[in-house]
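Example 3.2
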Amino acid sequence: MLERFERVVVVNLPSRADRRRETERELARIGHPRAATFFPAIRPAEAGGFGSVGEHGAYLSHLAVWRAALGVRSLLVIEDDVAFAADFAARAGLITELPEAWDVFYAGHMQLPELRRDWTETGLMRIAPLVEFIGLHCYAVSGRALPRLVAAAEAFLMRPHGHPQGGRMPIDGALNIARRQCGFATYAAMPPLAEQRASRTDIGTLKWFDRMDALAAPVSAARSLKNGLRRTGRALRLGLLGESIVPKGGRRLSERDDAKSEA
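Structure, written as tokens:
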């Protein structure tokens, strides 16, 4: 179903060949081995007013992908630590349900606790402007929204952290603020069609075992095992519950539901 988007881009640091290989395997697993192009993520020399060098680089990288996509009908952005849901094939059809007037679609996301109660209402859901998501490991932006999103992100970049109109911040926060300021029509897959794999961070502070070269191989093997066990566990749960945890006829979140989720 990734062909629904005119352009599909994976953000990947050139130094993280391991993440590129794992992402290529994930794309092959869902039947789209050649759907994406890989964008060489930016690694600036300094934090530049952001929380870390990695946070700064993530912001610049996503913004560069958005700028390069100006003029396309739709853009799907994937981060190189993505893990697609075990039932992706069974649920990916909801992508075709996006209305003509959509702006932002979260295929993968982490949510604030108050939204989890709405997981009983599964499928493609309309998301209220004040509901914020954490993580940008798999999301889409429509062509009509891209110019306004780029303009907003560029404005944030010119302001200091904590500015009341939005300043330098993590890129997922920038998209949340831009959604609200621009009035973007936002939708999300519930439950998510993708999540993050266990992987060494390029943004936050490294864990102690990631700072020891001698442990690189065993830690990598342990993470691969963890990711495999997660996928197997989800597949087993899906097998017990049926073909998919999403019932037929899953509906969108209505405007009334939106207001409820904000309360």
